[in-house]
Design a protein that fits this description.
By secondary structure, the protein is mainly alpha-helical. The protein contains eight helices and no strands.
């Protein structure tokens, strides 16, 4: 009885600790973009890297936006060519550079045809505010309703 109960407890604990499915391209891109955003927030608020963050452009990552590849490439260029050597060597900035390089590689090469982009609003990546763009058929329906 005790041996069976112990085996059952081990079985349930191993099921809870293991991931049921391996990460997909989409899930990895989403989680990595969230990691980049939290790291950027830390860089902007931490007193040793706050001056380094002044030169970084504002970016709001959305893996569903088709403009993400060009914006990531531009952002990576700024991080790699930061004018201050002290900032380029800070551990958080180095980690940010690695994460952005990984995310850019995942989106542009590894998951090139796996990701589905719902919008191409480049301004939303810069500002964080997405403005709705209606297709022609939807716009025609809105005009007819008035």
């Amino acid at each position: 009885m005790r041996l069976g109960l112990a085996a059952l407890v081990c079985l349930f604990s191993s099921v809870l600790l293991s991931d049921c499915a391996p990460p997909t391209c989409y899930s990895r891109a989403v989680s990595l973009s969230k990691e980049v955003m939290t790291l950027l927030d830390k860089i902007h608020t931490y007193h040793r890297t706050k001056t380094c963050a002044e030169i970084l452009p504002t970016i709001f990552l959305d893996v569903h936006n088709a403009c993400i590849t060009t914006k990531l490439r531009d952002f990576l260029y700024v991080v790699l060519n930061h004018p201050n050597q002290y900032c380029r060597e800070r551990p958080r900035v180095v980690l940010l550079k690695r994460k952005i390089q990984n995310l850019y590689t995942i989106i542009s090469r590894i998951c090139y045809r796996d990701l589905v982009f719902f919008t191409d609003d480049c301004e939303a990546i810069d500002t964080g505010h997405s403005s709705p763009h209606y297709a022609e058929d939807r716009l025609q329906l809105l005009v007819e309703d008035r």
